[in-house]
Q: What sequence folds into this?
């Protein structure tokens, strides 16, 4: 997902952005926000349904010379193919999961990272998480209360757009760097410039995960 060179690039972007801020930025990228087991079963069901429909239609148009006992093997084979596509093919997987399920999963995972990784426990309550989930093509920015009180939610739109556009081209690290820069700009515009009161509590390393 990100090489060591990519991580270093993002780390440098965070350090540069935080040099003039009273808040801390934590970029995070996950391959996906949930295992989505339903995409495998859904893919298998769709594959088998298509196979049955194709066999019935073909038999009606041109009866098979092959015995049914052999033709019926196409159904589980199509199910296996559908399951594989549901597991590993991004466009198919997104179609089987659905927009609402993906949005809920990304929102939940972002909150888990925010609280589990200590971003909500800084002394100044000044942590900001940039959470990107690649499979779902979703980006969430979560800010702790000291930042949230100064920066309106709409101010993060530029960071979300920057990450989304770069990730769509396969440039995850560049997207995180651009999102970090846009996040810092929004905070500086809100008057959060200066030196952090409690030091670099969260570090500069980007967080990663596979979502399983």
A:
């Amino acid at each position: 997902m990100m090489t060591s060179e990519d991580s270093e690039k993002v780390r440098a972007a965070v350090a540069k952005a935080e040099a003039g801020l009273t808040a801390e930025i934590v970029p995070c990228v996950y391959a996906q926000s949930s295992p989505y087991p339903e995409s495998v079963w859904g893919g298998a069901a769709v594959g088998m349904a298509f196979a049955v429909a194709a066999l019935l239609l073909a038999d009606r148009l041109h009866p098979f010379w092959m015995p049914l006992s052999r033709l019926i093997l196409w159904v589980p084979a199509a199910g296996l193919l559908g399951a594989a596509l549901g597991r590993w093919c991004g466009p198919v997987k997104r179609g089987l999961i659905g927009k609402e399920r993906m949005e809920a999963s990304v929102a939940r995972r972002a909150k888990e990272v925010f609280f589990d990784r200590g971003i909500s426990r800084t002394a100044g309550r000044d942590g900001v998480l940039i959470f990107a989930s690649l499979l779902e093509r979703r980006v969430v920015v979560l800010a702790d209360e000291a930042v949230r009180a100064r920066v309106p939610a709409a101010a993060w739109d530029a960071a979300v757009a920057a990450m989304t556009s770069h990730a769509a081209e396969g440039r995850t690290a560049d997207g995180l760097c651009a999102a970090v820069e846009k996040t810092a700009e929004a905070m500086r515009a809100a008057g959060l410039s200066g030196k952090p009161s409690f030091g670099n509590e969260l570090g500069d390393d980007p967080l990663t995960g596979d979502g399983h």
Residues 22 and 192 are 6 Å apart (CA to CA).
